[in-house]
Amino acid sequence: MKAIRVETKNGEPALVLAELPTPSPKAGEVLIKVAAAGINRGDLAQVRGAYPPPPGAPDTLGLEVSGEVVETGQGVTQFQVGDAVCALLPGGGYAEYAIASELCVLPVPKGVALADAAALPEVHFTVWTNLMDSARLKTGETVLIHGGSSGIGTAAIQLCHARGHTVFATAGSVEKCAACEKLGATRAINYREEDFVAVTKDATGGKGIDVILDMVGGDYIERNFRAAAIWGRIVNIAFQKGMAADVNYGSMLMKRLSHFGTTLRARSNAEKGAIRDALAREVWPLIEAGRVRPVIDRIFPLAEAGPAHARMAGGANIGKILLTP
Ligand SMILES: NC(=O)c1ccc[n+]([C@@H]2O[C@H](COP(=O)([O-])OP(=O)(O)OC[C@H]3O[C@@H](n4cnc5c(N)ncnc54)[C@H](OP(=O)(O)O)[C@@H]3O)[C@@H](O)[C@H]2O)c1
User: What atom of ligand 1 comes closest to residue 320's alpha carbon?
Assistant: First the structure.
């Protein structure tokens, strides 16, 4: 099968279309003929050598796909050959065929095109488990989503809006802020021109934000503490501005805050399966009702994985970038 392999060219990593063996599903796994694969920042980090695949995962890129089940391994009961699915993968999605644990597979929601469904797994697994399992978001609470126009952000804004939360979002341009508000953010904050701490305090009558989803880190760590409400929860899924920071913990103490950090990829299939079940119950109906949709920035052919990565690295995307074999 055709797949993307990372090779070194002129001392730099390059994404090269190569011929690799088609994998076979083991017990509990399905083989998916890939319609599209989603690109994630984690893939960009893996190319740089900063995010190695967990033990047992394919060393090729690609954390999510959509497509058709073409073979099932021993003991698979939840899906069968011919099913249109999307799946979270530990790797190996940038290819014509990919393997997924059946615990990480979901049907393509009604009304969503097969290829577009590749935009759903990584963002919804991540958003759900961080907002609901870690931060325990409750009905009526306010939410601040940093990086609102990212793949993750566009899913988080829509989900929170559909569940009735007042949503604030940060983004780095007028165009990105407009996109966030169109997706359901009550107020998008252009972080290059405005201070999100001041804006959210003002908009909440001084109370602050109940739950903050952060992918920025650095100086945002302390600023999140200042933006948070009493008993607020902050969850970091990345630290793009740096993992190390000089932080004043005073407001964390005085406001009884909780600060979480999680990654998804290294979790067990059983743990991912529990998140999958919650998505099927709580999020897929919202997608099928048209209240949450995949937000797709651009679709590239698989052979153009390099330019697709460059688009994400340059921060040009609003929503997800996909590859089609
Ligand atoms: N821990 C996990 O399990 C997990 C899972 C999935 C993703 N992630 C992480 O989540 C992040 C988003 O992933 P993605 O695939 O959706 O990537 P993406 O679409 O490339 O998004 C990255 C976003 O970061 C935003 N950003 C950068 N600096 C910012 C700042 N100072 N303030 C506000 N926003 C800022 C960018 O917004 P602007 O262009 O507006 O600056 C951009 O929207 C990545 O860092 C990824 O590694 C973590």
Answer: 19
Q: Which CATH superfamily is domain 124-261 in?
A: NAD(P)-binding Rossmann-like Domain (3.40.50.720)
Protein residue with its CA nearest to atom 37 in ligand 1: 147
* pLDDT at residue 156, rounded to an integer: 98
Cα dihedral 63→69→72→77 (10° resolution): 100
Cα–Cα dist 78/90, whole Å: 19
Question: Cα of 204 to ligand 1 centre, how many Å?
Answer: 25
CA of 264 to the centre of ligand 1 (A): 15
pLDDT reported for residue 56: 87
CATH topology of domain 2-120+265-324: Quinone Oxidoreductase; Chain A, domain 1 (3.90.180)
Q: Over the chain (325 residues), what is each successive 10-residue block's mean pLDDT?
A: 94 95 98 98 94 89 98 98 98 98 98 98 98 98 98 98 98 98 98 98 98 98 98 97 95 97 95 98 98 98 98 97 98
Site residues for ligand 1, CB cut-off 6 Å: 40-42, 122, 126, 146-147, 149-153, 170-172, 176, 191, 215-216, 237-238, 240-241, 262-264, 312, 315, 317
Contact 31, 97 (CB under 8 A): yes
How close is the Cα of 8 to the center of ligand 1, in Å?
Answer: 26
Q: What is the pTM of this model?
A: 0.97
Q: Which of 131, 82, 150 has the alpha carbon at shortest distance from 279?
A: 131
Q: Whose CA is nearest to atom 35 of ligand 1?
A: 147
Q: What is the pLDDT of residue 33?
A: 98
How many Cα neighbours within 13 Å face the side chain of 144? 35
Q: Separation of 52 CA from ligand 1 center, angstroms?
A: 19
Nearest residue to 101 (alpha-carbon basis) of 90, 112, 113, 116: 90
Indicate the domain borders of the chain: 2-120+265-324, 124-261
